[in-house]
Amino acid sequence: MYLRNLVPIGIVLIFIGMLAVFIGSTSSVKAGDKNTKVAIGGFISFIPFGFANDKNLLYFVLGLSAFLIVFLLMLRFWFL
Fold first, then answer.
1. Residue 28: is it exposed, middle or buried by C-beta count within 10 angstroms (0-12/13-18/19+)?
2. Nearest to 41 by CA among 10, 18, 64
3. How far apart (Å, rounded) are the C-alpha atoms in residues 8 and 77?
4. Tens digits of per-residue pLDDT, 29-52?
5. What is the per-residue pLDDT for 14?
6. Helix 2-26 crosses helix 55-79 at what angle (to 10 degrees)?
7. Measuring CA to CA, which residue among 42, 30, 17 is closest to residue 52?
8. Which of 11, 39, 43, 56 keeps 20 to 30 A from 66, CA to CA?
9. φ and ψ at 40, to 5 degrees?
C-alpha cells in the first residue's frame, strides 16, 4: 500500500532532476569560463564514492551519498 504512493513521487523527482539539468546547462554560462567545478558521486552497495575537481565539492557529494544510503535503508526497513 505504501509503495504504491512512492512510485509517483519517484517519477516526479526524476522529472525535476531532468529539468534542473536542462536549466543548468542553458543558463548564463560564458564560453570562456575556465573555473568550472564538477563532481559526481554514488554508491556501490553501502559504500559511497565520488570524483571531483574541488575538495569541498567532493565532501558535499560524499555526504550527500552517505545521506542517501541512510535514507534508503530507513525506507527499506520502514515499508517492508
1. exposed
2. 64
3. 20
4. 666 666 778 888 888 887 888 888
5. 92
6. 160
7. 42
8. 11
9. -140, 145
What nine digits make up the cell of 72? 534508503
Residue 64 Rama label (left phi>0; alpha psi -120 to 50; beta)? alpha
Percentage with pLDDT > 70 across the chain:
86
pLDDT bracket for residue 16 (50, 70, 90)? very high
Q: Residue 59 is placed in which grid cell?
A: 565532501
C-alpha cell at 11: 517519477
Q: What is the pTM of this model?
A: 0.58
Average of per-residue pLDDT across 49-70: 88
Q: Provide the strand spans (E) within the chain.
A: 39-44, 47-52
